[in-house]
User: Fold these one by one.
Assistant:
Number 1:
Amino acid sequence: MESNNFSYPYEYEKQFVKILKKQPTDLQYQILAIKQLLMQRLKLENEYKHKYQEIQYKYSSQFKENYNKRNNIIKGDIELNPNDDIIKNNNINIPNNNEKGIPLFWYKCFDNSSQLKNYLNEKDRIILKNLSSILCEEESNGNFKIIFQFKEKDIKPFFSNNELYVHYILDEKLTIKEIESSIINWTNDISNPSIILEKKQIKNQKTGEIIEREEKTNCQSFFSIFKNIKKGINDKIDDEITEIYDLGYHIKEDLIPNSIEYYLNMMNTDIDFENNSDEDSFVDEDDF
């Protein structure tokens, strides 16, 4: 068997050595060999992740150009007509219309994503109806930033930021290690969907006077992802940073690329494509 002395770190090394010593002597060589093969696979997996990241970054500028055109259509910055190259070769009959843009596009994408929907409370929904675009900036080292842009005039009752970002910072294994985010300048506590304000009556022990005090408690909200935290402090923070990363990864790898499918709720709709005839594939004007 060829040498398996890999420098790639194995996070369970100490635990493995202790358990190996407790195994039957005549099985220890076999177990050690299989563990070393695991090390080889982990090393290859790490190389694969970095190669994949290099390719992904190489094409990120082309993706960005594509997404910018899409955002211009969503926001109504581009006025489409039947003769535009991007739509004229489709065999679908669509009546002319004067509508510019697609209202509530990103809000509906959020609402139709099972992964994101569970994080939305009622205040979140009101705020996200003012979301005008979502962008992703990728870096060559695997880090990425999700940028949320809002309608400047309509978002002012909630916060003064025109855009918010979450920056995901990865380690050499391309796993999340740190999150940097915008500080949201909320107009007031009432507009902040991540807290609940409760009025409580407290009795003064000396005077007996009843004092009414307003207390803040945290609640589940999409806007709770805007934090500045690092891994390695304690298990609770590690779980939280992993959860925020999973949401960001979903937005980056699924929601942004496949936004039209989320907007149309195609992810949650059973469509029988096999039974559709050629005639059924055309959309009639009366269907609108």
Note: The chain has a mean pLDDT of 84.
Number 2:
Amino acid sequence: MKIEIKNKDCVFITLNNKVYYIDDSTDESIIDSWELKDYCQNCGSSLGIYNGDAEEDYNNSFCSKGCYYKYTNKN
């Protein structure tokens, strides 16, 4: 899970390959969500050639060795 607090009224929550957007900065109580296609399914790190955090030999399930070990409880 990744939580990005933009200000006291706006937050993005990335969870299980989906982004949840909550915004009450204009007193409209906006709540939206969308699927992520280019993010690690476990930790939410961005993937891809231009802005990816992933190591070259990993995929959508586990973007790095650290991610694999963290989410499978293997050392």
Note: The first strand starts at residue 2 and ends at 7.
